[in-house]
Amino acid sequence: MRAKARVRGVRLGAVVISLTSLVSLGVGCSDRTLSSIVVTGDGGVVDPPPPDPSALVLAVGQGHVCTLRADASATCWGDNFGGQCNPPPGAFKRLAGGADFTCGLRADGSIVCWGNPQSSAITAPADQFVDLVASGDHACALRAGSGEAVCWGDDHFGEVVETPAGVGFSALSAGFNINCGIRISDGGVQCWGAGDPNPLGGGPFTAVAADAAVADALTDVPGTFVCAIAAADGSIHCAGGAGVGETDAPPGAFRALAASGSQACAIGVDGSAVCWGNGTRGPLTAPPGVFAVLGLGAYYGCGLATAGQLHCWTADQGDISPLDGHYAAVSPGGPCVVSTGEAGVRCFGWLSPPATGHFKTISSSSSHGCGLRDDDSIACWSRFDALDGVVPPAGTFTSVSAAGCAHECGLRSDGTIECWGSNESGQTDVPPDAFRAVSAGCAHTCAIDGTGRLVCWGSNESGAATPPSGQFDSVSAGWNRSCAIRSTTHEVVCWGDIPASQAPPAGTAYTAVALGAEHTCALRADNHAIECWGGTEQFHQSTPPAGAFQSLTADIDRTCALDGAGALHCWGDVSFGDEPF
Questions:
Q1: Are 205 and 231 in contact (CB under 8 A)?
Q2: DSSP 8-state secondary structure symbol assigned to residue 121
Q3: Left (φ > 0), alpha (ψ -120 to 50) or beta: where does 242 sit?
């Protein structure tokens, strides 16, 4: 596993909701065939959704995701440091995610919010509402009957306290520091918060999107902008902004739009998507296709095709949608998956695997990965231009382990192991022997020889390279510890830096074990369920999903597993699109 830097975006995506059309908002990256979908939330970093084709609603927060299942109950996953992934029981018809909170609109029009108890956004007003939207540290809703906007949460720029009274709206957009709505009375756009980019000519309007645009995300003061679709001809009119192209809307007729940061995207009347402006990672280019809904995050765009497939893309990585919904192999760093359809590799985060080629299996950390091709050669990729260990040795292998902090290892068919990359602690100095398994840890490596004996080398500062005696079936080397499964009892045995919270349970048989930095997960032999222990309150790594699984693997703060159908499940820190350094 490799240490990763996590830098949250300074702004979150905008949310656009309409009383008469499908919702679009800021989202991150996800891919799933759904019967229908409503997307609401912030648009920081988002994950592949859980394998539930009955999900009808998707809400995206800064680092968490919530869905409504067929019974209208809410389920959430991702960052849970504030409890934003702990929805109350009951049915909902809308969900909206903020930075560290989530809100749900019930069928009776009431709103319930949950998450960070220190956030004022979790205290929703008591009334009846028809729609709901959230961004950053605040949320807004449209009151039933009158259409009045009601906002609550932290007020930084007047986006809460300056909410107009006595004005009915038919549509509402919430950005990072600005809210805009379409008035019922005349179809005009009215904004409040960090400056008013109006006036907008060419109304009345049917849809609106607004956010904070910046010329330089790190140094420049943001300038708000707003775009709206004219009711007469579907043309887009924009105003305000920071002068980086976010108001340069293309000509044509459109039916939906979304804004985030210094960019916006829209869906034409023919269903095609187009984007303009310039995000902090460059301009977005929407992929071809016919879309029903479009959403933007701070750095991502996502569109739901009319056929039900959700595609996502970034400015610097292009299309990041998975190849299909079921997978043959998964590695949590990235994370990366091997598709069952084309056997291609796709990573959801910042890793860029080879564009072509079929792979049998993969192994990755949050910064690089390697895969075993159909011809048994190894190919590696990285999020950095220059990183030790990216170029693997030539020849054929039977397995590869690339979850180390700065080194990788491959097992050849003759039982020899070759390791490459950083060797500061001797982690690539393979002892002479014949092996049948290998696992690369942070600064040490462990392997199982032909007799089932454990052999480890590299850094032994925490005792991670001093394995117990006996015979073992599998081994997993982690950050500063290692675990293996005994051949006789199939219990998990661990060594190295093992605090009490990370001690494995006794008397339970397992078939596989995977290590994170502070958590461990194992696959039970009796019912194929996953048990986890250790972890932190921030990411809840020790709370796996229920069900039976065929494989699992862990990175620093997250674990991913494939169920019997090959569907992907991840938990813990599932912010797959970590910000660049």
A1: yes
A2: G
A3: alpha
Whole-prediction pTM: 0.61
- In three-state secondary structure terms, 148 is strand
* DSSP-assigned letters across all residues of 386-423: S-TT-SPPSS--SEEE--SSSEEEEE-TTS-EEEEE--
C-alpha to C-alpha distance for 386 and 118, rounded to whole angstroms: 42
Closest CA to 400 of 384, 386, 385, 389: 389
**Helix, strand or coil, per DSSP, at residue 122:** helix
Q: What is the CA 324 to chain-centroid distance, rounded?
A: 17
Contacts of 179 (CB under 8 A, 6+ apart): 140, 149, 151, 159, 163, 172, 173, 191, 192, 193, 210
Q: Taking the chain, what is the end-to-end CA distance rounded to the nearest angstrom?
A: 18
Angle at CA 462, nearest 5°, toward 501 and 544?
35
The one-letter code for the residue type at 64 is H
Domain ranges for the chain: 15-319
Q: Dihedral of CA 380/424/559/309: which sign?
A: negative
pLDDT in tens for each of the 581 residues of the chain? 333 222 222 222 222 222 222 222 222 222 222 222 333 333 333 333 443 333 334 455 655 666 666 688 887 765 677 888 889 999 998 888 777 899 999 999 999 999 999 999 999 999 999 998 888 899 999 999 999 999 999 998 899 999 999 999 999 988 888 899 999 999 999 999 887 666 787 789 999 988 876 544 434 445 789 999 999 999 999 998 878 888 999 999 999 888 877 889 999 999 999 999 887 667 888 888 888 777 776 666 777 676 656 566 777 655 555 445 566 676 655 567 776 655 567 665 555 666 567 888 888 877 778 889 989 999 888 765 444 446 899 999 999 998 878 899 999 999 999 999 889 999 999 999 999 999 999 999 999 999 999 999 999 989 999 999 999 999 999 989 999 999 999 999 999 998 887 889 999 999 999 998 889 999 999 999 999 999 877 777 888 888 999 999 888 888 888 888 887 788 887 654 433 21
Q: Evaluate whether the domain defined by 15-319 bears CATH number 2.130.10.30.
A: yes
Provide the 3-class DSSP secondary structure of residue 130.
strand
Concatenated DSSP letters of 321-358: --SSS-EEEEETTTTEEEETTT--EEESSS----SS--
d(CA 209, CA 312): 19
Rounded to a whole number of angstroms, the CA Rg of the chain reads 25
Q: Where are the beta strands (DSSP E) in 395-534?
A: 399-401, 407-411, 417-421, 435-440, 444-449, 454-458, 472-477, 481-486, 492-496, 510-515, 519-524, 530-534
CA distance 329 to 344: 10
Instruction: Return the structure tokens found at 520.
Output: 């461990």
* Integer Cα distance of 533 and 206 in angstroms: 51
Q: How far apart are CA 297 and CA 279, in angstroms?
A: 10
Q: H or E element: which one contains 113?
A: strand 111-115
> Could you give the 3-state DSSP secondary structure of residue 506?
coil
